[in-house]
Design brief:
31 helices, 77% helix, elongated
Amino acid sequence: MVGQATELTGDLVYAVLVADVAAQRGNQRLAFTHYLLAARLAGDAGMVQLAARAAMALDDREAEQRVAKLWLELAPDSLEAQQLAAYAALKADDIPTALGHVRRVIHLAHEREKDGYLHAARLLADVEPPQRRLELLRGLIAEDGETPEAYYALALVAAGAELYDDAVAATRRTLDLKPDWSEPRIFLVRLLLGQNKRTEARKTLEAFLDASPDDRGLRMLYAQLLVDEKEFSSARGVFERMLSKAPKEPDVLFALGILSLQLDDAISARDYFTRLSDTGQRKDDAAFYLGQVEEDADNTDAALAWYQKVGGDNAADAQARVARLFARKGEVERARDVLQRLRDDEPDNAVALFMIEAEILRGLAMDAEAMGVFDQGLARFPDDADLLYARALHAGGMERYDILELDLKAVLEKDPNNADALNALGYTLADRTERYAEALDYIERALAAKPDEPAILDSMGWVQYRLGNHQEALKYLRRAVERTRDGEIAAHLGEVLWASGQHAEALKVWEEALKDFPDHAYLLRVMGRHRVTSTDPGK
């Protein structure tokens, strides 16, 4: 913009018009040339700023130096001009000149009651090697005298250079000079956490809180630390104290609602999310989680009412939950209509929505309809690995092993090392066919990719059993059982123990599993095959 006192000559108007059109068309070189010309003709610092913007977009050191020189001639006390001059000199590795401008930046910022050292830290952030940044800033600090602002800037520069010990030392010096400054206290705790010094970080934070018990930033950080440590009850206590000071604080009410859900305290969660909704803030979050509270309490109509109010980021998730609730009420077609509308509105989420619809139908024992959904999804996304894998597992449950094999091989054609597909195909071949050698090859490849995965260890144990290698089978099955509690894996272990003549241990394994999985169909079927029940130990 041309200053009001500037005479509008033809050359000036032409230069500005050309520059403006060039900037709009993305021709920064032409824009820079004509903005700089206009700035010289007008003697106007505002016009120089437009030239500076174009020069920065060009990333042209010479252009930046030319603009900075003119800008300083027109406005020697401009903070922005001094920053640009320092930046250009640093790019040229002209450190003495750069430091002269950085000193002016610090002093000009201080005159405006701004933190000049933070401006200096930003200017020095790209100096290489990183240690040199610290040396330059320390030199400036030595000239001006020690201040907390200077050392905090030094801490930020050190942290940006990943010199964390220097950052911690500088932050501690900051707090020596200004003990009650909240921002560096929070920064120090985060530095310690970033170095995985969790015990020291916690002790440091608790000491800060003892000194400043009502510091909101420290309280929030402490609550976050407790959540990370899974001390949910203690974290809730911290937030409750904060709420007593500000009863309608939306973020605190939200945190308390989430923590109450973690603690399985639905009554408190309902209260906090209702109070959050009443504030008029974060209404979508409040509605979404109130829907979850009511859904978990089997208050289906109340849950539906809340989910229908959800907008924003959780809207699609809320509508998927609406579909599940309609299905739970027996309104299956209505549920499917919701999911179809979602697919139309959010095509990027279509695959996940096909999966949700199939899962709902499977849960209602509508296996043929679920298969139809998978078919529909794969007609639209024929190479989608998730859909292929899900249809394969569903086909296995329907004893359509031909579809299972085709789909899993299609997954493996695209991703030969897909451990889940390798395992599913290998296990099925071992369990449902006599193609044991082929099954073993698939499972060995899966185990190479995920050597500690319980499901794959179980498959390896099962194929070894089918090959007649009972001791080898037991080795893998015991490893699987050690890693997870699972009814099917326990059933397999018991089966191999029984076949090996170790009936007492087999019974013990089954009985222990039955305590955790009393309704596990496969486990009960295996026990029944050997005429074993939880009350009749068998023969």
